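Fig. S4 source data, part A: sequence.
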Amino acid sequence: MPMSTFYFKDLSMTVSFLRKAAVGIACAWLACSAQAGTISRTYTALGQVASVDGARTDVNDVTQYAYDAQGNLLTVTNALGQVYTLASFDSYGNPQSVTDPNGVVTTLSYTPQGWLASLTVDSSTTQYAYDEVGDLLQVTTADGNWVKYSYDDARRLIGVRNRLGESINYTLDPMGNRTAERTKDANGAVVHLQRRVFDELGRLIRVVGADDQTQRYSYDLNDNQSSDTTPRNHKTQQAFDALNRVSKIVDPLQGVTALGYNADDKVTKVVDPRGVTTLYTYDSLGNRISSKSPDGGTSTYAYDEANNLIRSTDARGVVTEYAYDALNRLTSKSYPATPALNIKFLYDQTADGNLGIGHLTGLQDSAGVLTYTYDAKGNLVRQYRSVGVNSGDYYETLNYGYDAARNLIQIGYPSNINLTYTRNSAAQVTGIKLAIGNKTATLASNISYQPFGPVNSLTWGNGILLSRTYDQDYQLTQQQVGNWQTTYRYDADSNIAETATSLWGAVQYEYDALGRLTQEQTNSLKKAYSFDATGNRTQRTTTSLTTSDATQTQSLTYASDSNRLTSVNGSTLPVDAAGNHTQINGRRFTYDSQGRLSEVYQANIYKIADYKYNALGQRIIKRDYVMGSQTLAGTTTYLYDPSGKLLGQTFYDGNGQKTSGQYWFWLDNMPLAQLTANFSTLGEVSSSKLIYLHVDHLNTPRLATDSSQALLWGWNSDAYGVRAPEEDVDGDGKATSIVLRFPGQIYDAQTQLNYNYHRDYNPDTGRYVQSDPIGLGGGLNTFGYVSANPLRWSDPRGLAPWDWNGRGNTGVCSYYEQRVCETTGDLSDYYKRAEDICKGEDRAVNSLLTVGIASAWIRGTTDLSESDIYNKIRAELISNDKNVSSNSGSNGVTGDMIDAYHNDVFRDVGIGPLFYGGNLWPQGIPPNPVPRSGQN
C-alpha cells in the first residue's frame, strides 16, 4: 500500500480490546495476516489450533495457544513472547478474567443466560442490562452515564435515549427500513429530522431533509445505483460493466470519468474529465506495485511474504525502505540517500511504569524523540519529546488525566500550564479552566449542546456569550458572539448562499452544478471564479462595485496532460517530477526525501527558512535566517496532541534561548483561546496574555477579544482565505498575532503559504502546491482544495475534504463474497450479511453509524471525514477477519472473535464499540447476523 495510508492505531488502542468476549481478543489481535507466504499450523489432540507459524521467513512469527481439559482457551502467546491469559470460565465457556501482557486484569461477569453483564478494568466497571429476550436495554459506564435502547414488537431498534432525556426515535416500514429519524430534546421537541423513502425492493430512492429538500436515487436492473440527483436537480449518472463494476461516471456538467479494471476487480485506469489518465498495476496477490499519475508522477512498490510494504520509489527516484517486527508492526522507515531522515517506531516499552505492551511507545526521527506512556485502561497519560535547537536538546511534556470512564478531564501543557475540563452527568464538557502555576482563569463555562449534536452555547472567560441557532438539518443559521452577529442562509444543496455579519456586512455566494463556488459578492466587491472540467481554477475576476472599470483578472493555465498548474498571469510555476511546486512569487522551495517542503529561498539565492517533520508527518521545527546571510535568526518548535491538533509553538532566539511561545486551548475541534507567554532565562513563564478566539461555522478563527471584551483581531477573508488579518483592531499600536487559519492550517511567513499538516495551501490560487500524498483518494484533482467549496468543507489533514455524507470505497467488500464460498452454515450466512453491511446496504447499521460518527466528531475522538472512517473500518475489519480465519481455519471463526475485533476497530477509528451493532443485539438474534459462538 502507499506509505501515506499507514495508520498508527496503537496511539488510541485500549489495553485490552476485548470488551465483550475475551476469547476472541487474543485470537484477533495477536495473529498476523499473510497471503503470499506459507502459513503452518499444528493442532491439539482435540483438533484445536496449538500454533500458527506465519508467512514470514525473516523473523520467528509463531503464535501459540494453550487449552484446559474442557477445551477452553487458557493462554495465547504471540511471536514476541507476550502472553494473554484467560481464566475462571463459567458454564457457557465465557472467561471471567483476562490478563493482558501488561499484567492488567479485565474482570467480566455474565447474566444467567450467558450475556455480558459487567466489565471491570482498573476498578472501573461498565454494566449492561437486557430484556427477557436478550435485547440490550442499557449501557452504564463507570462515571454513571448511561444510554438506553427501546425496541418494537419485532425486536427492531426504534429509540435511543441518553441521561439528559434527549432521544433519537426511528420510524420503520414493514421491511425494517428506517423511514424517519427524529432527534428530540429533553422536552420532546423535534430538533433534527430526516426522512427516507424506499421502493418495493427496499432500495433507498429519496432522502428528504427537514425543509423537504430531496435527494433522489435510481437503479438499473441489477440494483446498481445508476443516478444521484441533488435537491437542486443536479444529476450524477453511473454506468456499469457486465460485472457490475462502475465503468463511467457522468457529472452534472457532463464531465466523464472512466474506470478500467483487471480480472481481480482492481482499478487499473482512471481517466478524469480532462482526459488525464492515472494507471495502476498489481501483483498476483492484489498488491499495488505501481501507480503512474501525470500529477504525482510514477511510483513503484514492493512487498514481503506477509504483504507488508517494504520498498517504495517515488517519481523523483527517492527510495524508502520499511521494516516490521514479528507482529507486522512498522518499526522503521529508511531513506538510503539521506539517512539523517530515517525513522524508528518503538513498541511495548515498559520502563518507569509504562503499561506499553501492545502500544506504540516511541518515535525517533530527524526532529527528535517522542515517547508515549499508558495507564492500565490504555489511556495515553504522558507524551514526552525532545527537540534539537541549535546544539542543545529541549524537552516538552504533555500530561493527560481521565475520569473513571476514560473521559479526558485534564491536560498538562509544558511550562506548568494546565487545563481542567468539567463534565456533566452525560460526560459532556461544560466548563474549561486554565491554570498557569498558581494562577487560574476560566476559559469557558455554561457549555451546552444540541441533542446528540454540536455546541449550542457557552460563555467565554471574559463574559462574552456564544449563542447558536440551528435548523432541523443541524445547519448553523445564526451565531451571536457578544454584540456581533452572523447569520447563514443555505441553498437546497446545503451550500452557503449568504453570510451576513453585523461587523462586516453581507456576502452572497453562487455555485455551479458541481457545487463549486463560482461567485462571492459584497456591497462593494464581486469575485467570480471559473473552472475546467476537473476543477482546476482557470480564472478569478475581481470587480469593484464602487469604482468603475476597476477589474483585476487572475488567469491560470495547466499542462495539457495533467492537472499541474504551469503559470499564473503568464508567470511560470515550475514543478519537480513528483508535482511539487518549486517556485512561487520569487520564493524557491526544495523538498526532502520524504517529499516535504524543507527549505525556502528568497530571490533564488538566500535561504530564509528550513523545516523538519516528525514520523507522523507533523512539522516540528522551523529555523529562519537573517535575510542575506546564513545567520540563524531563530527557531520555532511546534507541539501537537495525539489527534494532530496544534497545541503550541515555542520561539527560540539565534543563540537557542527560549524566549516566548503561543499555546492554544480547544473544545473538541473549536479553538477557544490563545495564550502568549514570555519566558525567563530559566524557561519559566514570566508574563503572559490570554485572548479569546471566536470562530465561524468551520471553526476558523474570525475574531479575538481580551479579558475586557475589547476586540483585538479580526480576519475577514474571502472564501479561499485571501486577505491578511487585521492585527490592531482597537488601534492601540500593539499588534495581536494569530497564525491559525482554516482548520488544520497555520500561516507561515517565510513561505507565505498556509502549512496544512501533510501539505501547504496557497490561498491566492485556492489549491495546494503539492500533489495529494494519497493520490486519487482525496479526489480526482490531486491539487484541489476541498472540491472548490471552502465555505462548506475543510481539510484538517491536507489530504481530503471532510465528506459528511460519504460512504467511502465499497469495492473492497468483494472479500466477503469469497468468505461466503469458503464457509458453511450460520457463518456463511453471516458473511453474506457482512457483505451487504460493508456495501452500506443495511439501513439499521447505516443509521447507527451515522449517529456514532456524528458523536465522534462532536467528542473530538476523530478528525477523519465520514468516507475516510468507513474506508478505515472496512480495511481494518477485513484485515482482522483474515487474521482470525488464518488462525482458526476458514470455518473456525466464532461469533466472539468477530465481536472482539469489531470492538477493537470501532475504538480505533474513534467511534467506540457502543456503536457497533453487535453490542446492541445478542449474537444470532436479528438484526445481529453474528453467529452464536459454538454454533457455526
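Fig. S4 source data, part B ends here. The longest strand covers residues 392-402.
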